[in-house]
């Protein structure tokens, strides 16, 4: 880890401590669970013990009779309010509370509102639900069988579990290239179901004021404005009568993009009782019922010449979407951004087909630091390249170097239609190999292999696509993806910046202030960043797909430039010179050729609020707004090298070292970027080695606590070694690209490739994540495990 070299506040980009940490390290953050309102009641959710069952009856009378219970909400209550079903962000519908059937274990069946949390929990036990169990569909591969029970029989005319077929690329041309290729390497692989597991679970405090009719919702959301619009559309409450406040968030990682039934129930509870209602889920509830990611069964093929020139990639995917997620995510493509599976390589052709299916699992496929399926795409192509290297007997670094896109090819349109904005990939791979001292590592590996030791070196090279983005790629509820920014400079030159995005730990209060500082020369300490409150911030779709820097960051730069232009008009009036005679240097306008004659931004701000006479039509004060509609996504990229040791007796993997060179264009705060990368690398180690949401045959969820669903700690992680290259995005006002998900997307393949490189002498070509000791041990004996069904 790099030390903070310059702890003093820079007047713009550079390392600086995070402003928000002043409250976080003192335990002074305000999270949803810290919100306490007078007369507040508490809600609890009754959940299904079955993965698939018909609901015969629900008798809530005993719970209703509990002296501390104020309301019991069931699907029938919601039906009478026309709220039984809610749209998911992915254009499907989900039962808020089950009425006809339960479709996954942990599904919401009833909601109790009581005077305290304990009473609410106790009363859940008093609700008598009669179930008629049905066979559960857990294995996506079996969901399409003719005799598989139909999970979504609530949808009229549905006779099976098939949701969609989606394809991209040119099939005919790809098949031709494959037919003519010297070599075709084929590999099936599973990206298992995983969960983001943020430190803070999800929750809501809903307060419907019966007098004003205004609904205030404190909620754990990465996208407050999207939630408000959805509440308005679903509940029919006028949008201006809804205020969504997303206070401090204890991690999101995609878990807090969607709306969950508990949120809606808290709102309904408040409407029914006329009191504020708090609902906070516990850890098991979070792990069982909220957004899952991945669950992609992939069949990949890669075609090449004998010399190792990669020609084409062909893929078939079976996507397990769980019970309620008809399409993958809030995007026009049902398979999300999986279309970037061509990776970082100069291919002649590519084609992929994705089939989505329902299973009796919690709604899946949404998000986990993933850029919506890019994680799966990168993993697939980076495993395929290694499998090809294995088959051809080539060094995986050399094979990548020969096939990476070259700098002169940018902007590059991929064979599936994505326009990569900028990059010098070979330079970044070279930087990573140098950082790792690759040749020396290989030499050491050879020596160790002679001693019977299993040392592995794994590589990955990833291209991300972040900053949703143009409507071509993405929309939620038909809303498009522009984000707003408002900047107000006060008379004394201090400023407030209002943004539609929402930080879950990424440090927005610091970095967005730094963008204004860079543009206007106001110290970041003098700029307050306001976000997470729909009453106080302009509309925008929030934080996911690492879009805050690409979209809100761009909006911030543009709004600051607008203020600078306004400041120029004021300065010209103050100095009584033409605007054309003024020149900007950070923090002041001065007269060309006379550096002494100038006004700094603080003087200009005061004058802008005075009776200074401004030109006809120019308003006073120093404010501006901007709505930024990004012309393209940004495409950060990186090269990773992972070194592992595998215990030949137990299959236990130790990550010895990890070298990561990330390119996210211009870095606003390199310290924060490095923190983002550290977190993502830990995620990658977790997914590669231990994280999986497994189920048994009956649909029992086997990962309901951190004893079973394993997260990496510092003990499993090495001391990360980071490097950087900087290729600015040509279309972003400050040349920045997003970085928040890069390392999660890029690192699993490096870890898996390293483990498989270690066991290569034993003839192991592939094994599926997570490479827990049992999986590695079995693979070493030629007996690969189906990890999502077998490992708990
Ligand atoms: N940054 C920078 N220079 C760049 C790019 C980014 O200084 N060139 C800074 C940004 O200004 C911001 C941070 O790095 O402070 C991350 O920026 P960005 O890549 O724009 O990502 P977002 O802010 O949109 O965050 C979302 C992203 C996602 S989608 C997930 S999931 C994830 C991630 O961020 N969840 C996180 N990182 C997380 N980090 C924490 N601590 N907690 C989460 O829940
Ligand atoms: Cu894909 S997880 Mo993030 O986009 O919130």
Automatic annotation (TrEMBL):
Its cofactor is Mo-molybdopterin cytosine dinucleotide. Keywords: Molybdenum, Oxidoreductase. Coiled coil: none annotated. PANTHER family: ALDEHYDE OXIDASE 1-RELATED, XANTHINE DEHYDROGENASE. InterPro entries: Ald_Oxase/Xan_DH_a/b, Ald_Oxase/Xan_DH_a/b_sf, Ald_Oxase/xanthine_DH-like, AldOxase/xan_DH_MoCoBD1, AldOxase/xan_DH_MoCoBD2, AldOxase/xan_DH_Mopterin-bd_sf, CO_Mo_DH_lsu. This is Carbon-monoxide dehydrogenase large subunit. It comes from Prauserella marina. GO terms for molecular function: anaerobic carbon-monoxide dehydrogenase activity; copper ion binding; iron ion binding; molybdenum ion binding. It holds the Pfam family MoCoBD_1.
């Amino acid at each position: 880890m790099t030390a903070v070299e310059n702890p003093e506040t820079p007047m713009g980009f550079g390392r600086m401590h995070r402003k928000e940490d002043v409250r976080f390290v003192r335990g002074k953050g305000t999270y949803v669970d810290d919100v306490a309102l007078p007369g507040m009641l508490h809600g609890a959710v009754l959940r299904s013990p079955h993965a698939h069952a018909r609901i015969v009856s629900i008798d809530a009378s005993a719970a209703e009779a509990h002296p501390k219970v104020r309301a019991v909400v069931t699907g029938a209550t919601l039906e009478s309010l026309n709220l039984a079903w809610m749209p998911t962000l992915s254009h499907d519908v989900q039962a808020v509370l089950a009425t006809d059937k339960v479709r996954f274990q942990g599904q919401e069946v009833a909601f109790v509102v009581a005077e305290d949390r304990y009473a609410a929990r106790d009363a859940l036990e008093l609700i008598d639900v009669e179930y008629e169990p049905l066979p559960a569909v857990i294995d996506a591969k079996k969901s399409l069988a003719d005799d598989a029970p139909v999970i979504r029989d609530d949808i009229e005319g549905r006779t099976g579990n098939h949701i969609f077929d989606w394809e991209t690329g040119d099939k005919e041309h790809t098949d031709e290239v494959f037919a003519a290729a010297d070599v075709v390497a084929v590999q099936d692989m599973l990206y298992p179901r995983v969960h983001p597991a943020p430190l803070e679970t999800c929750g809501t405090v809903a307060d419907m004021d019966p007098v004003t009719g205004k609904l205030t919702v404190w909620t754990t959301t990465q996208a407050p404005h999207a939630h408000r619009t959805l509440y308005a559309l679903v509940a029919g409450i006028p949008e201006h009568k809804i205020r969504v406040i997303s206070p401090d968030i204890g991690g999101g990682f995609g878990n807090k993009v969607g709306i969950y039934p508990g949120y809606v129930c808290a709102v309904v509870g408040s409407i029914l009782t006329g009191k504020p209602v708090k609902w906070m889920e516990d850890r098991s509830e979070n792990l069982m019922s909220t957004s899952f990611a991945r669950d992609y069964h992939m069949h990949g093929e890669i075609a090449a010449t004998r010399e190792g020139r990669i020609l084409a990639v062909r893929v078939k995917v079976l996507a397990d979407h769980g019970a309620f997620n008809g399409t993958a995510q809030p995007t026009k493509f049902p398979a999300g951004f999986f279309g970037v599976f061509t990776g970082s390589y100069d291919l002649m052709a590519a084609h992929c087909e994705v089939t989505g299916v329902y299973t009796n699992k919690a709604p899946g496929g949404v998000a986990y630091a993933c850029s919506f399926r890019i994680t799966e795409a990168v993993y697939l192509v980076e495993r395929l390249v290694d499998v090809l290297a294995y088959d051809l007997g080539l060094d995986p670094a050399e094979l990548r170097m020969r096939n990476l896109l070259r700098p002169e090819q940018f902007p590059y349109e991929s064979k599936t239609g994505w326009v990569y904005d900028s990059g010098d990939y070979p330079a970044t791979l070279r930087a990573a190999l140098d950082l790792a001292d690759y040749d020396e590592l290989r030499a050491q590996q050879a020596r160790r292999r002679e001693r019977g030791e299993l040392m592995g070196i794994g590589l990955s090279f990833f291209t991300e696509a972040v900053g949703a983005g143009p409507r071509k790629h993405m929309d939620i509820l038909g809303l498009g993806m522009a984000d707003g920014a408002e900047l107000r400079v006060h008379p004394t030159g201090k400023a407030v910046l209002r943004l539609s995005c929402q930080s879950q730990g990424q440090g927005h209060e610091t970095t967005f202030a730094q963008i204004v500082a860079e543009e206007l020369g106001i110290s970041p300490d003098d700029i307050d960043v306001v976000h997470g409150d729909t009453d106080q911030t302009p509309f925008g779709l929030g934080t996911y797909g690492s879009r805050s820097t690409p979209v809100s960051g761009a909006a911030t730069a543009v709004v600051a430039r607008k203020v600078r232009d306004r400041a120029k008009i004021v300065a010209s009036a103050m100095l009584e010179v033409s605007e054309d005679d003024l020149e900007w240097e950070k923090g002041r306008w001065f007269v060309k050729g006379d550096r002494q004659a100038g006004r700094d931004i603080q003087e200009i701000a005061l004058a802008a609020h005075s009776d200074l006479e401004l030109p006809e039509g120019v308003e006073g004060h120093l404010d501006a707004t901007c709505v930024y509609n990004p012309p393209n996504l940004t495409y950060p990229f990186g090269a990773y090298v992972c070194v592992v040791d595998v215990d030949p007796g137990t299959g236990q993997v130790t990550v010895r070292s990890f070298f990561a060179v990330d390119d996210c264009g211009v870095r606003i705060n390199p310290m924060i970027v490095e923190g983002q990368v550290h977190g993502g690398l830990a995620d990658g180690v977790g997914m590669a080695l231990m994280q999986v949401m497994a189920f048994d045959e009956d649909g029992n969820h086997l990962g309901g606590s951190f004893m079973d669903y394993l997260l990496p700690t510092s003990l499993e992680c090495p001391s990360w070694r980071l490097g950087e290259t900087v290729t600015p995005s040509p279309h972003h006002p400050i040349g920045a690209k997003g970085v928040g998900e890069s390392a999660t997307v890029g690192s699993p393949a490096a870890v898996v490739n390293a483990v498989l490189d270690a066991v290569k002498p034993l003839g192991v070509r592939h094994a599926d994540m997570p490479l827990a000791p049992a999986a590695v041990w079995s693979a070493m004996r030629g007996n690969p495990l189906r990890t999502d069904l077998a490992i708990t």
